[in-house]
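This section describes the prediction task in plain terms. A model, or a person checking by hand, is given the sequence of a single protein chain and must write out its three-dimensional structure as a string of C-alpha cells. No templates, partner chains or ligands are provided. The sample shown here is typical of the held-out split.
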Amino acid sequence: MVNHIIKRLLLMIPILFGVSIIIFTVMSFTPGDPTVLILGEHATDEDIAKLRAELGLDDAVFVQYMRYIRKALTGDLGRSYHNNQPVAAEVALRFPNTLRLTIIGTIISILIGVPIGIISAVKQYSLIDHSSLIVSLVFTAMPSFWLGLVLILFFSLRLNLLPATGADSWRHFILPSFTLAAASLAMIIRMTRSTMLEVIRQDYIRTARAKGANERRVILSHALQNALLPIVTVIGLNFGRQMGGAIVTETVFNVPGIGLLMINGIRSRDTPMVMAAVLVAAIMAALVNLLVDVMYTFIDPRLKSEFARKKT
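The expected answer:
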C-alpha cells in the first residue's frame, strides 16, 4: 500500500507539469495586454514598454514558462501583475473558503443522495423512485449560476432567511454549498440506485433474506457495503468537479475563494495568479483521488490482500 501511494504521488508530477503547460500557454496567447490593463488605456508607450520589461513579458513564451517553473520549484509562485503581492499568500488566504465550500457541498450531496438512491433501489418503480429520477434530471440539466440566482431571490431577497453574498459565517455557505452540490447530488442518486439494484439481485442477498435476516441489515450491511466502491468513486470525482465548479458558484455568491480569484486573474490577464489557483485545485483533486484509492482497501478486503500479494 505504501508503495502504491508513493507511485501515485510521483504520478502527480507529470500531471501538474502538463496542467501548468496548458494554462500558461492559454494565458500567454489570450488576447489583451496585462500592462495596458494595469496602467490604463491612456498610458504612454514608454511606460508600457518599461512595465513589460519589468514583468518579463518581452521574452518568448518558452523562456517565461521555464522561468516560472524554476521559481515554482523553489516555492516562489511569483507576484501578481495587478497588485504586486505574492500569489502564494493570496491563494493561501482564499483557499480555506473554497475548501470549506467544497467539503460542505460534498457532505450535502452524500447525506441526501445516498439515502435517496438506496430507497429508490429498494422501492423500484415506486413514486419515490420516479420522483428521484425527475429530481436528478432537473438538477443535472439546471445551470449552477441559474440555480444560485433563484436561491438568492427566494431565500435572501424574498424570505430574508439567508445572506446572499460573502463568507463571514456558516450561514453564508448554505446557499452556495447547495448550489455546488446540486449536480453531484443527481449523479450520486443515480449511481447509488443503479449499483444497489445490481447488488440486491445477487444470490447472497437472497440467501441472507432466506435465513431470516432483518431487511434493514440486509440492505445496509450486506448490499450497501458491496455497492460502495462505485459510489465512493463518484464522490471522489465529484469533489474534483466541485473544486472547479466553485468558480461559477463563488462568482454568483461573491465568495472570496480561489475560484473568484481565478476569474479576476483571467479578466486582468494575471498569469501568476491564475497559474497558482489552477495548480492548487489540481493538487487537491489528485489528493482526493488518492484518498479514494486508499479507501478502497478498507471497503473491499480483497484489494488489501491483492496489495499484500504484490508486496511479497
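For orientation: The chain has a mean pLDDT of 83.
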